[in-house]
Amino acid sequence: MKMKVFHADTMHDAIRSIKEELGPDALILSTKRVRRGSLPFSLFGRSLLEVTAAVDSIDGQAVPDRQATSLVVQDTGPSAVNQREPAPAFQDTLNTVLYANTPSELRGAHVRIPPSATQSGSEPVPPVRFLHLMNECLDLQARLVSWLPAESNMAGLDFSAPLGRACRFLIAQGLRPSTAERLCSALRCRLSEGELQSDREIQDALHQLCLEQIRVSGPLLDAETDYKVAMFVGPSGVGKTTAIVKLVAHYRLQENRSVALITLDTCRLAAVEQLRMYAKVLGVPLETAQTTAEVLEGIRRHRRANLIMIDTPGFGPHETAQLMNLGGLKDSYGSIETHLVLSATTRMQDLRRTMTRYEACAPSRLLFTKLDETEEYGNLLELAHQTSLPLSYWSNGQRVPEDFEQADSARLADLLLDRGSARFTPSGLSSSVGRDSVVSMGGTTPQHT
């Protein structure tokens, strides 16, 4: 094999030089821009095109490298070597695509596959040429994928213009394209042709459809429920302890229910002390537990309370044994309502991973926090739809207990469709579990756990 490096101003000049010196069967191995000049390191030199080319024949006689061919067959398998090269029709399409997406100085140089490569024969493909073609195909695949339009831009193409806009708006709110298209397909079946041309009619119908899709669980305690044990699980930093304190304040001070607290989050002493401070102010007992057996003992000790709430530490992706222990706690006692606490600011992919990780705890409710820190609420509907779990509560700020709400399907539909009156405001004007500030500690709330 003969290989040589050429320098030229344009690809046309490089190809002409390659054909003159190596012949028409020469193969271009690589191209790149370089600078040449008289100054050190060639920083200010003229920009040239450096082309590396090779030909697998010497003096017109083919010299196949049998040893290299056997190595290629061993690495890639016989099926890869026996693959046929692209047909001429594909060659034309390939040149058209590359012509439309390459710089002007490279447009004259079409990708050329030697005629001998398209002919079937008993002789094996030269190894260097085969490897080069394989690398070119992989590079072409990556370039074609990068040119494809985003899935969100492709969504709703089969709908009317207003319905397509609604579909893409739902995707921008965090819904998967398939879910957004399913909702809009349902709208298309419900609305008439005239209504499908009106953005207002589509928004009203979509609001009603979201009301039907969103499931909520209701409060922890109601007129018919006098006793419940609730456990709160979730990753670190989502606000489990803060959510528990807000619920305790509501049920203890506003509904005058007896409440007991049990915490398994004993690894962080500051968190335990802060929770103990709140428990003292609210007048509720607090138990610390190291094992599930101690949690069960604490539940039995406070069985006369109306509501027993269990705080848990946040576990990482590899702490599966601890998550299994929490699942065992639910199996041992039985009637424990498990709330998976998640942040509304988390990406949908991470929410799904967290949901998979906490399946060992068998959560029966979804509780979202930090709704005031995002403007996209599709994650709430998407995850609830994927898991078939109802929404219980959501938190929209740090104040105790004002910035906390019972999940409401109409409110979430308003948020999802970006209706201005539903937005959370810093002053806490949204409808919450409790509007009057019944707990004040200098504006301090528990650290997120």
Spell out the blueprint of helices and strands:
Blueprint: E1 2-8, H1 11-22, E2 27-36, E3 46-55, E4 57-58, E5 61-62, H2 66-76, H3 78-81, H4 88-100, H5 115-118, H6 127-147, H7 151-154, H8 161-172, H9 177-190, H10 199-213, E6 228-233, H11 240-254, E7 259-263, H12 269-282, E8 286-288, H13 292-301, E9 307-311, H14 320-333, E10 336-343, H15 348-357, E11 365-369, H16 378-387, E12 391-395, E13 404-406, H17 409-416
Parallel strand pairs: 6-9, 6-10, 7-8, 7-9, 10-11, 11-12
Antiparallel strand pairs: 1-3, 2-3, 4-5, 12-13
In this structure, how is the largest beta sheet organized?
8 strands, mixed
Fourth-tier CATH superfamily name of the largest domain:
P-loop containing nucleotide triphosphate hydrolases
Ranges where pLDDT stays below 50 over 5 or more residues in a row are 38-44, 58-87, 100-114, 116-120, 426-449
Number of strands: 13
CATH class wording of the largest domain: Alpha Beta
What number of domains? 3
Radius of gyration: 33 Å
